User: Fold these one by one.
Assistant:
Number 1:
Amino acid sequence: MKQHEVTGLSVLPVPGLPLFVAGDSICEAITVATIAGHYSGLINGLVIDETDTEQGDKVWAAGAEPLIARSIMTSDEDRINLARHILTFARAFSDERLCRA
């Protein structure tokens, strides 16, 4: 089977708030840092909301580059701006991979 290097990105949907599995009070909170750790080695970057800026170092430590952006979108302009930031972010990984080839 032929292997290809793929740029992987993830977006955490709820900025600033840890997520919990419904009905399970003993489980670990799911934060930007735990998501980065879970996907360590699989993703190159993680889009995190500006309210989670303090967790950026933990994302780096897990091996992913954080893109800190305003992820709550309330207008078309917000959606366009976030999409542009993410596309620029993803292109940087593609350009980096091309330079190594």
Number 2:
Amino acid sequence: MPATISSCVIATNHPFLCEISSGDASTRFYCDEGILESRRSAGGHRMFDADSATERLLLVRRLRALGLGLSSITDVLHGERSIGEAVAAESARLDGEFRSLAWRRASLRAVEAAAPTQRAERLALLAAAQDGGAAHDCLVRFWRRILMPTRGCDFDSFVCGNIPEPPADPSVDEVVAYAELVALVTDPDMNNAVRQQLWRNQSELIRDRRGLFFSIGDIMLDVIPLVSEGVRPHSGSELDAFVDAPSATPQERRGDSV
């Protein structure tokens, strides 16, 4: 049997609705937004089905208690999302917030840990990499410019193997190291130096860029253990292979189209 409401004051014997709806601004808001379904009587009163309204209002308040927004709650009520899907989306959003907060906390601690004479410099360094996701995007953009026009799948493979993901809960040393990477790739001289190392002076003459790309990649894999062990740069087979890679790649004859 419908319950009659005037100005969202329940005229029914249902104890829950009487308790939560009498003069409740949030309930009136849910009514106005269509979250709680109602109809008007001839006298202008809101008409609710007591049982279904109770169930919907309980669900709304429980989801709100977990921090879900009204748009997500509305999707659940309209059957566009399940409760599980809505909760999973909110959980993913919170994961992003926690990562952002962890990055910020590490940055603050890094400034605090710096010597007084170095704090201004470290502050400038970390301010330029204030968000881990944005910092990672900066590294990706740098290498995308360097490696153009590498195929998308090849570039994605390069990103996975060579551009570190920002730590979810970085230490002071990690956030400083990542910020230093960002500072490097935003330096125009670095862009020119890396392009020169990879493509040399006449990149337009390299016919098989993909072949050169993978040749350099293989050489990098060979030297990773040396870098990890802190071996100083020196002459040897690895350096010879790097120097010889461009000459081993087919070149265009002058006047040929690229």
